[in-house]
Amino acid sequence: MPSAPAPSSSTSNSRANGSSSNPSATGTTSNSSSSSSAPASWDAVVIGAGIGGLVTASQLAAKGARVLVLERYLIPGGSGGSFKRAGYTFDVGASMIFGFGSKGHTNLLTRALADVGQHCETIPDPAQLEYHLPGGLRLAVDRNYDRFIAELTALFPHEAKGIRAFYDTCWSVFRCLDAMPLLSLEDPAYLAKVFFKAPLACLGLARWLPVNAGDVARKHIRDPYLLKFIDMECFCWSVMPADRTPMINAGMVFSDRHAGGINYPRGGVGVIAEKLVAGLQSHGGEIRYRARVTKVILEQGRAVGVELASGERIQARRVISNATRWDTFAGEGSGKSSLVDAAHTPAAEARWRQRYKASPSFLSLHLGVKAELIAAGTHVHHLLLEQWQEMDAEQGTIFVSIPTLLDPSLAPAGKHIVHSFTPSSMQEWQGLSPGEYRAKKQADAQRLIRRLEAILPGLSAAISHCEVGTPRSHRRFLGRMDGSYGPIPSRRLPGLLPMPFNRTAIPGLYGVGDSCFPGQGLNAVAFSGYACSHRVGADLGLNAWALPD
Asked: In whole angstroms, what is the distance from residue 220 CA to residue 211 CA?
């Protein structure tokens, strides 16, 4: 499910009123800034402690590299973090978590933690999510694949063959991915080794790189209503319809939800980042909070370190940016500043901007509600849309998670958490006076609550705590251009082929996170982190000869 970043306003025992909160209270740091003496130069400096950056850093530390992570905020994880308010532990964003399986190679969160001696206790979710769609279409995606296929086929019996063919094709993509260690596609040595280990899987995967999920769906399915459902299946995690969702990503998500399943980390999603930090530190790496990087230092066209807002300069053999592409490189839509100025931004970045645009941010609600509001048998994750044409409109689709159904310890006794968010563009929130901004927050939050009562009757009267976040909140706390969820294609593109990998055109500078292959989602950015650490490890001469088991 898309990540909705941290809120900026809080109202206890009342409804959303848009009052401003103290930023320093948004989270607590379970891992304080390192106070050990830092070396004069690091092997790698990672800008940003999102999941992609932390996987990169911890993997490099496990290889023996001297690694420093610089995080502008107070807590690790970015939109994959957690914050505490009034006895609640709220997930900043993502709560529908892939990558915690126990078999194969696509369980990247399990593997990333294990590689640095860490483990997350997880709670299995019996369903990915429940859809509430136009025309009364209501369906929960069961963890069991055959049950899901049977329930979808019961709704569209005339498409029984096409349903099975489409989702089975997704499985064939997943099997290719799951058969090989997912490392850097930019490393010829890795490609040769993995091809020798799993030649059929490599050939099978190459076939799907230029293909989008919509192409495959239309090959097997004719019913326009069912095709809209497939669009929503893609949109719920890629914020794109099937025609613009790469088949590689669809194969991963549509199959891993049944193979490894959706598993929630006990204690909240922020535990993942906290344990990655612990693993990083146990292998000699360090992290500094409240350390905002303002510039990548270049010498003779090569990245050699970073400069902080304080003026401090830190040298490194390699620099890795976990910031978005827009925040890393200057260009149209970059905002006020970028880590690399326009004079040194490679031409390839301009081409990337022509292919991809920023997805919207979110209007988000973190609600504490009376426990009796949530009926027995309620699913954890929901998606609500009243009209098909509103799917990608401003505040059209609504995402909901109730993580306390899996982990009651996240809320005070007698309470549940209802976390809801809906896409919202920064343009809707600009140019407002402080009073206008507060009024819009309150009005939009109340409208969202009224819509949610279609699936949670009585919600408005049951709210005892409310946090409201807007695109401005997300930009402020996460440091992402316009608070965006990440890049989406600006037009139809051939699958994943146009996405940039980890190396940039500036020697010594790498990118990691949702702006890089394979895109958004915690498991996807973990893949990006694995790939980046492998590519940097190869450049530093640190990689083991053998592939991981």
From this structure: 15
Element (H, E) at 329: none
CA distance 420 to 402: 9
3-state secondary structure of 510: strand
Confidence at residue 244, expressed as pLDDT on a 0 to 100 scale: 93
Distance separating alpha carbons of residues 153 and 165, to the nearest angstrom:
12
Rounded-to-integer distance, Cα 334 and Cα 481, Å: 7
Burial of 370 (0-12, 13-18, 19+ CB in 10 A): middle
Helix (H) / strand (E) containing 3: none
Residues 6+ apart with CB under 8 A from 523: 97, 98, 99, 106, 108, 109, 252, 256
Give the β-pairing of 356-358 and 487-489: antiparallel
The H or E element containing residue 253 is helix 247-259
Q: Contact at 8 Å (CB) between 466 and 445? A: yes
Confidence (pLDDT) at 93: 87
Check if the beta carbon of residue 419 is closer than 8 Å to that of residue 410.
no
Distance CA 381, CA 378 (A): 9
DSSP 191-220: HHHHHHH-HHHHHHHHHHTT-BHHHHHHHH
- For residue 50, what is the DSSP state? B
pTM: 0.91
The continuous run of DSSP H or E covering 60 comes out as helix 51-62
Distance from C-alpha of 192 to C-alpha of 206, rounded to nearest angstrom: 14
Say which amino acid occupies 355. Answer: R
pLDDT of residue 180: 87
Query: How deeply is 545 buried, as exposed, middle or buried, from its count of CB atoms within 10 A (0-12, 13-18, 19+)?
Result: exposed
Q: Which two tokens stand for residue 148?
A: 């899901």
d(CA 359, CA 363): 13
On the 0-12 / 13-18 / 19+ scale of CB atoms within 10 A, 36 is exposed
Q: How far is CA 414 from CA 266, 408, 410, in A?
A: 19, 9, 11
3-class secondary-structure state, position 457: coil
- 310 Cβ neighbours under 8 A, 6+ residues apart: none
Low-confidence ranges of the chain (pLDDT < 70): 1-40, 332-336
Q: What angle do CA 115, 117, 121 make, to 5 degrees?
A: 100
Largest Cα separation within the chain, whole Å, is 68
344, 301 in Cβ contact below 8 A? yes
